[in-house]
Specification:
heterodimer; A: alpha+beta; Immunoglobulin-like; six-stranded mixed beta sheet; B: 521 residues; alpha/beta; Urease, subunit C, domain 1; TIM Barrel; 2 domains; five-stranded parallel beta sheet; globular
Chain lengths: 654, 521
């Protein structure tokens, strides 16, 4: 019976991973809007290509103008990186849109969308995307393998690092580890470069990283489908072996969103910093390469472990934790943060605290590679768990324009924008291009829990660590929490809060810039508030620059053997740091503090000193439980604050 | 629907065909036509040649000796905050200096902004209904201070002054308002709009005399806003001599309860009257005001008496009828606040049995009337609230019972989004209590529903905005955990014992407001 259930589950998973052929998807999916043309015998007689043309939604001239006008309004009036992008890429998207507007009626449907997509993609900003009339909500076009590179940027080797269900590739030799030589007969490196040019990303390494991420996974709600229905891949099973070729069709899968992800219309939706395409791709990869976890999630399992050795968590979509054994530093904690796409940052942070309690406190590797971002509050509030010092969050500014002033003045937006309004109005006289930068995560919220992890921390990023991932990396560096390691030049460099057409439409109601509904489900996302760093990098933008760290080049062993060289590299960094620890236990009548590596202990009750500074050595300190709401311990080593614990006493302990 | 109201008419009319003076009262009839306008006001209760034609099938309300008066006009309120109780900053011993000081107090957002936000976000239609019913049961037929909304509010219950179009006769933005202090550029624009015929109701110089708030009056003057069409709310910080600079005087709305509660002083009414400024009375808002303008009238009387200003009941009653009616008439080109041919068919019936007696001074009767004395309220010729008997006589349809202080009355209310579906106060209160019980869930669900509606291509649901300062709030205006929002008990519609007992020893009125309870004893 159990075998039958397992077989049934496997069959269902394979069904989900198989999805449907791209060609079938494009032909059969219902098209939006009143102008859809029906399929029928006549269509069948014309063949597939003709049917595609029949089904394509054709915008009329008026509808095209609606879209262009909306984009001109929001890019010219609200796009927070407009000044920077004009400088960095010598472009003028508003003028380009104006020019497109003047010739819009004469273009074919394909020409129109290509022209519009090119203007927006030219901004090299994964936050800011145009999505044309579409039917691909939640759909991802996939090839059932993952391409990654190792070695130096100038001379990379491209390999298949993961392969999905064998049934999807009818070539048993095409497995993880094969070296890729060509893509549709184009040398692989050249093909990647060509594709990179269509991708977002300010730096060449970021563009390539994003291109590799989406080379075999295309989020159809954020961009056009692949040009071809299938791909011919040239590969070798090992360097120097015979060249082989396999033809693999594009398939379309629907990985759906996790239960814990941000829900449309929620309060959190105004505080998102994410690359929506990368998030969809991440979900697609999960379905294809971690099918068991994906399936457990879909079946409603309360907590799931990715594989043996990983800790079960109900936030399995965003978190994965385990202990890793290293030669240099012994057992270390490893926490992968796949994404910040959560709706409830409190629950997310509580889960991280729970996981940290189960991990060794000897040192922690925080791995944010490929994290496409999500809820800003989740990223910035998480930082406090790893440091005894107060966190200063990033700040965000609006472009100072008549549109943003009107938006901030609107009574409907007072709760959201009142704090930005004085500087937006002052900008008329000061000439400042931006509003005053203000945090989106209130500093009090960034420090409401305090340190929870004793050991030293290393954070790993790559050029696909984006947006809220960038914000976490920036906060990690700027608040001097630990060492940042970066695969590539820097993190992904997405520095903004992202809104959708819905958000802007709602915010501009009753202003002179009011936006209408867009035809046929067309839409866009746009960077609305520009992130600026804090600390020593105070005022520096994140966009296009990213957060540099200690450089690291991936190895073949990393790609094929669970990042073993990367973990070794990080353990070396952690090994050199002097360790301190602090643990607090609250009893009915006493509070016990156990420390190592500290020489002074300060105690505060409800924010006030409770006793004189204690000189301490490793061991246990005990004191009567004070009649207070909260007790706080600060541990110093040679004068430097190394540990801090804040414990709520009301209702805690016995 | 036409309607005839018979009773002791107190027309406050300047039309000599109706009455020789504003002080007149007589047994007679008010005839309201299908167009919602008063067709005639006639003397005598029997038919006569004066009776207008076309009323043969009109329902007739026989109010007996009760007073048939113009519906009351509240020219200063904030409907979004109507459910909230009186507020004081704990431990404060000194009056606030001006309107920018109290919003900065630490308890302001949690006591005022967030509870109001919970209702405005999660139950906007219910909040509006509650606030308007509260006005209605006090005889109010027109009210200023509707929250900014994403769709027009006119034609539903009481007249929302900023939104009123008189069935499309006047433009939607003929009456402009601002609670927040405007910049000189914005004031300049308002000055221009006033010259083009708009009326501008503006919170101006609210605070103690000599405080920095008095500069707002100067700014209003230099921007060119001191016009006949300006309705300045408060001006209690103004040096009375400065009224002399208002060359073509407009109006001031006086909210003595709120002024005394927050600042311990109030508008210099005699100085304003001496300058020829029209005085109106407004109830202001829940945290520092009365529950309707009929209650505020009593506070005005208390202040007048305490300060020896000598305002007669007639003077005071005019401040909630004829005076604001004249102000609105400038913008609407239709008389309000007076019962005379052509005027708006907005009428209240007040029991003559109240102090003042059936043959006594009707203005004294009105001054002393409480919610329990309000027998019928008609807006635009439509009977909206009253005793069962009078509502039936008026031919009211789609009514539900509303019990106030044990007295069963009828309310003719339909749902905001479905004009033909009756809506009871009980249902409204139930929804508000649901929000109060769990504001977090209510707010979150409401946002999701709004998003889903728009995504589905439907019309966006009713959306309102707060019009008062938000105070010192975190990013986004709300607490991190919406579950920490505590919504205070929804206040009863009427002035009642708990309200009066919350006055002594609180606020900065020096005991003056304690006397309000005596009117309701």
């Amino acid at each position: 019976m159990a075998d039958m259930t397992a077989r049934g589950a496997s069959a269902k998973l394979l069904e989900a991973q198989t999805g449907q052929l791209l060609s079938e998807f494009l032909l059969r999916v219902p098209q939006p809007g009143r102008r859809t043309k029906q399929a029928g015998a006549k269509t069948a007689a014309k063949g597939a290509a003709a049917a595609l043309a029949e089904h394509a939604y054709v915008l009329d001239g008026g509808e095209r103008l609606q879209i262009i006008d909306a984009l001109m309004t929001v890019i010219g009036g609200a796009y927070c990186h407009l000044i920077q992008k004009r400088a960095a890429y010598a472009l003028d998207p508003v003028q380009a849109l104006q020019l497109l507007r003047s010739r819009v009626a004469g273009l074919s449907e394909g020409e129109f969308h290509l022209a519009l997509t090119s203007i927006v993609a030219g901004l090299r900003d994964a936050h800011t995307r145009y999505t044309g009339p579409r039917a691909g909500q939640g759909a991802v076009a996939t090839l059932p393998f993952l391409v990654e590179q190792y070695g130096p940027h100038g001379n990379p080797t491209f390999v298949v690092s993961k392969v999905s269900a064998p049934a999807l590739i009818r070539d048993t030799k095409f497995v993880a580890g094969v070296v890729l030589e060509s893509w549709n007969s184009i040398p692989f490196a050249r093909a990647v470069d060509l594709y990179s040019d269509r991708e977002t990303g300010g730096r060449p390494d970021a563009r390539r990283a994003r291109a590799l991420e989406s080379l075999t996974f295309r989020a159809l709600e954020c961009g056009p489908p692949p040009d071809e229905m299938m791909v011919d891949i040239g590969y070798r099973t090992s360097p120097g072996s015979a060249l082989r070729e396999v033809r693999i069709p594009w398939r379309v899968v629907c990985p759906a969103k996790a239960e814990t992800s941000q829900r449309p219309g929620s309060r959190a939706s105004r505080y998102i910093a994410a690359n929506p395409a990368a998030e969809a791709v991440r979900r697609g990869k999960k379905l294809m390469f971690s099918g068991n976890v994906w399936q457990a999630e879909r079946s409603g399992a309360a907590a799931v472990a990715r594989e043996k050795g990983w800790i079960e968590t109900r936030f399995q979509d965003t978190l994965a934790a385990r202990t890793v054994k290293t030669h240099t530093a012994g057992d270390l904690a490893y926490l992968r943060i796949w994404s910040f796409d959560v709706d409830d940052d409190d629950a997310f942070i509580a889960e991280v605290i729970r996981l940290l309690d189960l991990l060794p406190d000897t040192g922690l590797i925080l791995d944010l590679r490929g994290n496409p971002g999500g809820l800003i509050w989740a990223a910035e509030r998480l930082l406090q768990l790893f440091t005894p010092n107060a966190i200063t969050p990033a700040r965000f500014s609006l472009l100072a324009t008549p549109l943003t002033r009107a938006m901030a003045r609107s009574p409907f937006n007072r709760m959201e924008f009142e704090a930005w309004l004085p500087s937006l109005e002052a900008a008329i006289a000061t000439g400042e291009p931006y509003s005053q930068p203000l945090p989106l995560t209130d500093p009090a919220w960034c420090n409401d829990t305090g340190q929870r992890y004793s050991g030293p921390v290393v954070c790993v990023t790559d050029p696909n660590t984006y947006s809220a991932g960038d914000l976490f990396a920036a906060g990690f560096v700027d608040n001097e929490i630990g060492t940042l390691v970066c695969v590539g030049e820097a993190s992904g460099a997405g520095g903004a809060n992202v809104w959708t057409h819905y958000d802007l439409r709602e915010a501009l109601v009753d202003t002179p810039f009011a936006l209408g509904e867009l035809p046929a489900d067309a839409g866009y996302t746009i960077a609305i508030r520009r992130a600026l760093r804090s600390g020593a990098a105070d005022g520096l933008p994140i966009e296009d620059l990213g957060i540099p760290g200690i450089p690291y080049e991936m190895t073949l062993d990393d790609l094929l053997h669970e990042n073993q060289d990367l973990i070794r590299f990080c353990s070396g960094l952690l090994a050199g740091i002097s360790r301190t620890t602090m643990k607090v236990d609250v009893g009915d009548s006493t509070v016990t503090v156990t420390t190592t590596g500290l020489d002074e202990l300060e105690t505060y009750a409800d924010g006030r000193p409770l006793e004189a500074v204690r000189r301490i050595s490793d061991g246990i300190q005990q004191l009567p439980r004070p009649d207070a709401q909260m007790i706080e311990f600060v541990g110093r080593r040679r004068g430097e604050i190394r540990q801090r614990r804040r414990v709520l006493l009301r209702g805690a302990g016995g | 629907m036409s309607l005839v109201l018979a009773g002791r008419i107190v027309p406050l009319s300047r039309d000599t065909k109706v009455a020789r003076s504003e002080t007149a009262s007589f047994q007679g009839k008010v005839w309201i036509g299908d167009d919602g306008r008063i067709a005639a006001v006639t003397k005598g209760t029997r038919g006569s040649r004066q009776d207008p034609a076309g009323f043969e099938t009109a329902p007739v309300v026989d109010a007996g000796n009760d007073l048939v008066v113009p519906g009351f006009i509240d020219l200063h309120s904030h409907l979004a905050y109507a459910t909230l109780p009186l507020w004081v900053e704990p431990g404060r011993t000194e009056p606030f200096l001006h309107h920018n000081t109290w919003p900065t107090r630490p308890t302001y957002p949690e006591s005022i902004t967030w509870p109001a936000y919970a209702f405005i976000e999660a139950a906007p239609a219910e909040l509006l209904a509650y606030a308007e019913i509260r006005a209605l049961i006090g005889g109010t037929t027109s009210i200023q201070g509707s929250p900014p909304s994403n769709r027009p509010l006119d034609g539903w219950l009481v007249r929302n002054i900023e939104d009123e179009t008189l069935r499309g006769e006047v433009g939607r933005h003929q009456i402009l308002a601002s609670t927040l202090t405007l910049k000189s550029e914005q004031l300049g624009e308002r000055a221009t709009r006033m010259r083009q015929g708009a009326t501008f109701i503006y919170h101006c110089a609210e605070g103690r005399p000599g405080s920095i708030a008095q500069r707002e009056y100067l700014a209003t003057r230099t921007a060119g806003c001191l016009q006949r069409e300006l309705v300045a709310i408060h001006t209690n910080a103004v040096d009375p001599a400065a009224y002399g600079t208002w060359q073509e005087p407009g109006a001031i709305v006086w909210s003595p309860f709120s002024n005394l509660w927050l600042y311990g002083t109030t508008t210099d009414v005699p100085a304003a009257l001496a300058r020829g400024i029209t005085l109106c009375v407004g109830s202001d808002w829940g945290p520092s005001g009365t529950r309707n303008v009929l209650g505020e009238l009593k506070v005005a009387s208390l202040v007048s008496e305490a300060k020896g200003w000598g305002l007669a009941p007639l003077d005071l009653v005019k401040m909630i009828t004829a005076n604001p009616g004249d102000v609105l008439a400038r913008a609407w080109q239709r008389q309000a606040g007076r019962l005379q041919p052509g005027a708006l068919g907005d009428v209240a019936v007040i029991a003559a049995g109240a102090k003042g007696g059936a043959r006594g001074d009707p203005f004294k009767t009105i001054l002393h009337a409480t919610e329990a004395d309000v027998r019928l309220v008609v807006v635009d010729g439509r009977p909206l609230y009253g005793t069962k008997e009078l509502m039936e006589q008026a031919g009211a349809t789609r009514t539900s019972e509303i019990s106030l202080g044990g007295q069963p009355c009828r309310l003719a209310l339909t749902r905001f989004d479905a004009a033909r579906q009756p809506w009871s106060f009980k249902d409204i209160l139930k929804r508000l209590e649901e929000v109060r019980d769990d504001p977090k869930t209510a707010i979150e669900n409401s946002r999701r529903r709004a998003f889903a509606a728009v995504r589905a291509g439907g019309a966006p649901p009713l959306r309102l905005a707060l019009d008062m300062p938000t105070g010192r709030v975190p990013v986004g205006g709300l607490p991190k955990n919406l579950g920490t929002i505590v919504v205070p008990p929804i206040q009863p519609l009427m002035h009642e014992r708990a309200f009066f007992s919350s006055i002594p020893g609180r606020g900065f009125h020096g005991g003056l407001l304690d006397g309000l309870a005596d009117f309701y004893a």
